[in-house]
Every structure is written in C-alpha cells, then in structure tokens.
Amino acid sequence: MNRTRSRSAIAPSHDSESFPSGLYCPVLALGLLLAFAPGQAGAADKVVADLVYAEVDGRELHLDLHLPAKAKNAPLVVYIHGGGWRGGSRKQAPWFFGPLVEAGYAVASVEYRFSETAPFPAQIHDCKGAVRWLRTHAGRYGCDASGIAAIGCSAGGHLALLLGLTDGDKRLEGTVGGNLDRSSRVAAVADFYGPTDFVLRSKDQPEQTDKRGGKVYQLLGGPVQENLDRARLASPAWHVSPGDAPILAFHGTADRTVLINQSERLRDACIQAGVPIALHRIDGAGHGDSRRKTPQEGAGETMYFATRENRGRLIEFLDAHLKKSPPPTKATASGAAEKSVR
Q1: Phi/psi class of residue 192: alpha, beta or left (left: φ > 0; alpha: ψ in -120 to 50)?
Q2: Are 161 and 125 in contact (CB under 8 A)?
Q3: Is the CB of residue 249 less than 8 Å from the CB of residue 266?
Q4: What are the tens digits of pLDDT across the range 122-174?
Q5: Which CATH code, of 3.40.50.2000, 3.40.50.1820, 3.20.20.70, 2.60.40.1170, is assigned to 3-193+241-341?
C-alpha cells in the first residue's frame, strides 16, 4: 500500500535550543527547512508514502519517497534516520530534505528494524534491501537509480557508511526484500557524526558501548569487549578498502556522545586506502544540531550544521557523484580533505 500527498501534509517536528544526547538527526521546523532553499523550496514536491519494500517475519518495512516537482530521471538519495538503532522515524524530515528536493533530488526515507527485536546485522540487511528495491522500482516514480547516494545522521550515518563501504560482503548483504539480482552498492555517502569504530569507542567511552541495556550493547547483543568480532563487523572504519564510495563527513568538535575521533578514525582509514573523504569539523557543535548562543560571525548563521555553507557542500558533493558529466574536483594527494568550520 502507498499514499501520495503533498509536502504540506507532513507535520514538521519541533526543534529546540538543545537536543538530547541520543543518536539521531536534527529535525527542524518547516519554516527553517525552507529557508535554506531559494523561493518556496519544497512547496511543489510530493511524497509517495508507505511504500512496502520488504516483509520480514510477518512485518512490513516501508519507505517514503520525496519527489521533486519534475521527477524525471531524478537522481536518488537514500536517507537513514538516527535514533540509537532503536528509535527515531523515517517520518522526521531533517533540515536538508527541502534543499535536496529543490535541487532536483528524490529522497527515499527508509524504515529499518530496531535492535530491541533484531540485533545487528538486521539494520544493514534492511537498508541494503531498500536499495535493491529502489533499483528495481524507482523508474516508475521518475527516479534514476543507476547511481544512489546514502545519507544519515548519527546511527543513520553509521548505517549509511556501511552501505558505502561493504558492497558485496555476504555477511552484511542479507536477503531482505529479495531483488537479489540488483546491487545494493551506493555511489556516495554523506555522514553526520556517525560512529565508525566500536572497538575504539569502547576504549574511549565504555559507558556508551558496554553498559548493559545501552544502545551499542543492545545493537551488538552484549558488550563490545565480549563481542569483538561482531563489533568490528559493525564498524565502518574496519571495512574501508580501495574503490569504496567517496564520503562527505561532518562532526562537531564538542560532541560528547560520539567523539570526533570516530570521524578522524574513518578519515585515516580512507586516506590509507585511497578512498576520497572530506571531513568538516564543526567548531563548538555537539551531537545533533543546536542553536548558537550568538550568530556565526560574518555569516549570521544561527545553527551549527543547518547552514547555507553546509547545504552548498552537500549538494555540490551529490552533484559531483550522481549527476551526469560531473565537474572536475580538487583533491589532495591522499584523496582526502579536512576543514574546520566556525
């Protein structure tokens, strides 16, 4: 079953001065979302809701397809929500949905099983199943699925990275949704403050990884130190190899939920393997977006992540890897770049 509705029918979630420390993506009011695109961005697009991409153990898994007004051969972005692998919703639209749709991208917001009932690798099995389904059916909605990008925040960023770094790994492909003649490979990944190495994190933040009933404990089915093989299997940084999808990463320097060294660990692994990565360090930002105490000097921005500059970075990155005849890009000798953003 599916339903089609205009974006105006979606009730936006509310933002706040500061967000809780769970693994999730910042969700902003619709007015702020539209402010990051010219004109009345997103006003004319539509949402095809509740598309069933798989059925697992008697439960349907859904995705919502956000389409631009002119959805002819629209390049496709898969969005994976955060929530500590045990919460969150595909219905919560993050700040970049409006700008992406306005730029001509179709965005598929994907549901996946939570760790309370299905430990890892169920989550990545579901995400890969969604990509295969989209490759099979996207054409009927005017989408071009020849190249797909994945984007996610926090726990969703972790899963987006696994999509980009584990193509063909039978342990993580699964069979969810069938369509096994289709590839689950993605052409690019944008990650906002996702964890990348649970083994490293268990050394730095054991309270985040080894506490009974905690998010990572539940995801892995036990503490990291007693499940090292599964922890490595679930860690994107341990999968990096030549030829993997290029990565655009954002991480706050004041993040105490997922330390910035998680993104630095990924950056170093990508440099060693020759995988293109750009890591943008957001000075003063915590886990998830929040309002600045004072507007950014010069630019006047009031948020840390949801800025015009980051919007431009994201769209430029996707344009380079998904749209036809991508423009040449500058790269360092290592294929990596890093910048602090105030």
Answers
A1: beta
A2: no
A3: yes
A4: 999 999 999 999 999 999 999 999 999 999 999 999 999 999 999 999 999 99
A5: 3.40.50.1820
